[in-house]
Structures are given as structure tokens and as C-alpha cells.
Amino acid sequence: MAPPAIIAPSILSADFGSLGKECSDTIGRGADWLHVDIMDGHFVPNMTFGAPVVTKIRSHVERPKEALGKGTFDCHMMIAEPKKWVKDFQKAGCDLYCFHYEAAINSTAAEAPEATSEKKTSPKDLISYIHGLGMRAGIAIKPGTDVSVLYEILDNSNKDEVPDMCLIMTVEPGFGGQKFMPDMMPKVEALRKRYPELNIEVDGGLSESTIDTAADAGANVIVAGSAVFGAPDPAQVILKLREAVDSRR
Ligand SMILES: O=C(CO)[C@@H](O)[C@H](O)COP(=O)(O)O
Ligand SMILES: [Fe+2]
């Protein structure tokens, strides 16, 4: 059976003027995780914030009592050098460090020399490095990346090198409020068929009008930014997203 719904509002659409309160209120309204979008202006054409801000918002949200439990900070690292920032985010209170496959295969070991002796960073090395620092690891792919790149990473008997979640982007990363790409659903379907118990996250354009498509395909971790923070009743939206996923289990 597919894992239960996990609703992760993206704080990119929150009021940055009162981010701590927005975060604690959102957990109080029924969210499981907070999706924290980190953009560096290189991997994506936009910038958000770094570890110091995560440290501040962490003090407003209780740490999860179990791995991937309520209050998990799901940090979506849209950054060109994912290995370089693992330690800083761990210290800041990140629970799930989700890096992009496309960035990992293009970055070098020099970013974190102790992590590997190979010249190029491999996703499995990075996952093991993240696990070694006590966090869970996620791996994300952009719309143009084939889902099959994840199979080799997931089909590994060394669990230390296997991600705890895969993120299928349903928009080009960089901005909130974009239109959901239904043509990404075959990737979700293929992953769900092959890995019935995997946490599969979808991110970009999720709302009450697109959730059925994503839930039918087998996604269980639902990121929603504008749909939650732009709603008159965010708790109701969170509930609707959860029901759509859980009713298909
Ligand atoms: O990673 C990203 C964008 O790059 C997302 O997390 C968005 O922030 C989601 O926002 P909505 O599409 O739900 O408004
Ligand atoms: Fe995101």
C-alpha cells in the first residue's frame, strides 16, 4: 500500500515579514511538514534565503518527535552546490535535505572533501553524507529529467545510499504560483508501480483542482504554496489535499 498523505505547504508563498508565526500557524492548521525552498540564483533564476533564516524559523516550530514526523523541515535545495551546504542546514534544523539530481551530477567533491574521494559527486555519496549527519535525504528531478535516472539510485542494497523520498517537479523550479504540468504524471506512476512504499513528492501548481491528478498517479507528499497561503481557509485546503491522497490508498 502507498504511504499516507503528507501535506507540506511551501513557505515560499508565506508572508516573509512574519515567517516564524506563519510557519507555526501552518503546522497548527494541520500541515505535516513545512516545505522550505532554498534558491541560490545559479541553479534557478531566483534567490530565497539560507541557513540563518532556517535557524530562526526552527525556533518557532517544534522538532519532529520521530523521523519525518509532524514539524519536519523539508528543505528543497535548488542550489548548484548541494554538498557544500549540508552541514549548515543540519545545524540550522533541517530534517530532510532534498537536493537536485541535476546539481549533484555536475558538482565536485571539492565542496566537501571528507564526503568522498571521487572527483565528481555522485548522488549516492551525497545521500550517504546526508544520512551520516543525521538527516533524511531526498532527491529531486526537474521536468526535463527522465525518471529512469532514479532507478539505479533506488535499486541499491546499501540503504545508507538510498533516498528517503523522491521529488518529481511539476513545474520548472524557481518560482511559486506556476501552472501544474500533468505530463509529469507518468513519472509518478512509474515510480509508484516500481516502489509501492516510496515517499513520492510532487511540487508545483498543486491545488484542489490538480490534486486528483497527482493522487491518481500515486503521489503522497504534496507541496502546495499559493494554494495554501493564498486561501481564505488554509486548514480546509490542507484537509482537502490530504483526503484526496488518503482516499486512494
Ligand atoms: O520549488 C518550488 C518552486 O520552485 C515550489 O515549492 C513552489 O514554491 C510551489 O509553489 P506553488 O506552485 O504551490 O505556488
Ligand atoms: Fe519546492
From TrEMBL:
It comes from Polychaeton citri CBS 116435. The active site is at D37 (proton acceptor), D203 (proton donor). The keyword Acyltransferase does not apply. It catalyses: D-ribulose 5-phosphate = D-xylulose 5-phosphate. Its cofactor is Mn(2+); Fe(2+); Zn(2+); a divalent metal cation. A divalent metal cation binds at H35, D37, H76, D203. Its EC number is 5.1.3.1. NCBIfam families: PRK05581.1-4. Pathway: Carbohydrate degradation; pentose phosphate pathway; D-xylulose 5-phosphate from D-ribulose 5-phosphate (non-oxidative stage): step 1/1. It comes from the Eukaryota. Binds 1 divalent metal cation per subunit. The keyword Isomerase applies. InterPro entries: Aldolase_TIM, Ribul_P_3_epim, Ribul_P_3_epim-like, RibuloseP-bd_barrel. PROSITE patterns: RIBUL_P_3_EPIMER_1. One of its GO terms (biological process) is carbohydrate metabolic process. This is Ribulose-phosphate 3-epimerase. One of its GO terms (molecular function) is metal ion binding. Keywords: Carbohydrate metabolism, Cobalt, Isomerase, Manganese, Metal-binding, Zinc. Signal peptide: none annotated. It is an enzyme of class 5 (isomerase). Substrate binds at S10, H76, G174, F175, G176, G177, G205, G225, S226. Belongs to the ribulose-phosphate 3-epimerase family.
